[in-house]
TrEMBL record:
Record GO terms (molecular function): acyltransferase activity, transferring groups other than amino-acyl groups
Any one Pfam family match given in the protein's UniProt record, by short name: Acetyltransf_1
Domain N-acetyltransferase: 2-156
Native source organism of the sequence: Halalkalibacillus sediminis
CDD domains: NAT_SF
Record protein name field: N-acetyltransferase domain-containing protein
Amino acid sequence: MIAIEPFRKNHMDLWANFRQKLWPEHSLEDMTIDVQHIFEGKKLVGDEKTYEGFHLLKDDEPIGFIEVSLRDSIDWYDASPIAYIEGWFVEQSERKKSFGAKLVKHAEEWAQEQGCDYLASDLEKDNRISLLAHQRLGFTIVDENVKEYLLIKEIE
């Protein structure tokens, strides 16, 4: 059975662990502090109105997560408000089984509930796997900088 649920305060360790897997250059302690800040309503990226996280369970085992923010705008695309994928991860052993797509679909539904028509994301240029995953799900590169591709998907 597959379920996607919002992170709650009793999931803080789970969320921090997922974040550390996605961003291994950051310590687990830093990830835990970030999760605490999210639950306290503190801003992580500076301009988000809301920040939410969801985890995917397969047979009651957590295998992935997605976190999204709601922003008034972003400087590289003209849409307001806009939802933004801040992080997205599926365990290596569970990839290529549509779990990532289910998480993005859930993020789209959340974004629509917030009044958004578009979902934005970014990724490091050297992350070819992430680029292919985004493109398979309908994201289009609309801008780039030295380090990142900036992508948009119209929510259907």
